[in-house]
Amino acid sequence: MQLIPLRGDVQFEHVNFGYEPGHPILKDISLYAKPGQKIAFVGSTGAGKTTITNLINRFYDIDGGRLTYDGIDVGRIKKDDLRHSLGIVLQDTHLFTGTIEDNIRYGRLDASGEEVRAAARLANADSFIRRLPKGYDTMVNDTMVTADGGNLSQGQRQLLAIARAAVADPPVLILDEATSSIDTRTERLIEKGMDRLMEGRTVFVIAHRLSTVRNSDAIMVLEQGRIIERGNHQELIAQRGEYYQLYTGMFELS
User: Domain 10-248 maps to which CATH number in 3.40.50.2300, 2.60.120.10, 3.30.360.10, 3.40.50.300?
Assistant: First the structure.
């Protein structure tokens, strides 16, 4: 098995995949991403956005084609090594029973207290954490309730997820954008934290709001498991194809 760390070059070459034999979900997927690039996936439910990120994580192995990291075939990289090089920020952040600090440290278990706090500052989570009854020592449980009975908002959980990814300092980052409503101020904090987190990394975004993908280096429009359009925002708008229809509101992402 090949040992890493990864630099963050990720390439799909004519990749096919299905969860069940004879039922392909992804068909002939080819793309290349390098450090400092943000690749956004857009498309309706079932188009294949999450499936692509599941392959990047190597939750599943591909059925055909080739998937490489830094030119190394994914099959030669130990899954644990690969996942240590990936950061994931999901829509629904799971918190376990423990302190806020321990929940952030879950991104890298040997992180020091100062590294945890630095990650929280990068994520714009530090200010709300310090307002909690015991700050970083505040206990939470898996139902997102603090020890004093208070609830963490969806936005606060997102900020903790960003901090957790930041403390891991991975070369490759996967963001599954939140669809739930978040107040405007918290949304701005999340966007700024995300921007700082993404700097210098290879970033894949599962996009649910087109406003967040306009500055992506490349946008992949998926339909029934195929990439039907690719390009940056300006290029895809000029094509007046599926992305144009999505962006102008004739269809909605889900």
Answer: 3.40.50.300
